[in-house]
Amino acid sequence: MSRSIATFTLAHERFPAAARPLCERGAALLLVHRFDAPSGSILLLHNLADQAVTVDLGPLDGVAEAPYDLLVDGPYDAPSSELVGLELHGWGYRWIRLARSNHG
C-alpha cells in the first residue's frame, strides 16, 4: 500500500494543474481530488478499501457540461451532473471529466 501511495504522490507532483482536495465526504478510505487547469477540470476518486462504496458529492462549481468518465477500473453507470450515487468498486478508481476548455 505504501508503494501505491508513493507512486500516486509522484504522479500528483507531475500534474500541470492546481490540485485541491475536496471536503471530507463519504467513506473514510476514499481519496477525492479535483484538478483545475486552463484545459478543463477532472475529478479523481480512489477507493482505498476492499469494500465497494457509493459517494454523494453534490453539485460542484465550474461544471458547465455533463460530466463523463475518462478512466475507470470497470463498468459504472455514467456520472450525473449532480455527482450523486457515484459507485466505486473495492480498490476502485474513477477519473471524471467535469469541464473541458479549448484553452491551454
Protein architecture, described:
The protein is mainly beta and 104 residues long. The protein has one domain (2-100): Immunoglobulin-like. Helices cover 12% and strands 38% of the residues. The protein is built from one helix and seven strands. Strands 1-2-3-7-5 form a five-stranded antiparallel beta sheet, with no helix packed on it. It has a two-stranded antiparallel ribbon with strand order 4-6. The radius of gyration is 13 Å and the shape is globular. 15% of the residues are buried.
User: What is the overall pLDDT average?
Assistant: 78
> What is the β-strand count?
7
CATH architecture call: Sandwich
**CATH class (first level) name:** Mainly Beta
Tally of individual helices: 1
CATH topology: Immunoglobulin-like
The number of domains: 1
Which range best describes the helical content: under 10%, 10-25%, 25-40%, 40-55%, 55-70% or over 70%? 10-25%
Structural class: mainly beta
Distance from N terminus to C terminus (CA atoms, Å) equals 34 Å
Largest sheet: 5 strands, antiparallel
Summarize the structure.
The chain is mainly β and 104 residues long. It is 12% helix and 38% strand.
What descriptors fit this protein?
104 residues; mainly beta; Immunoglobulin-like; five-stranded antiparallel beta sheet; two-stranded antiparallel ribbon; 1 helix; 7 strands; 38% strand; disordered N terminus
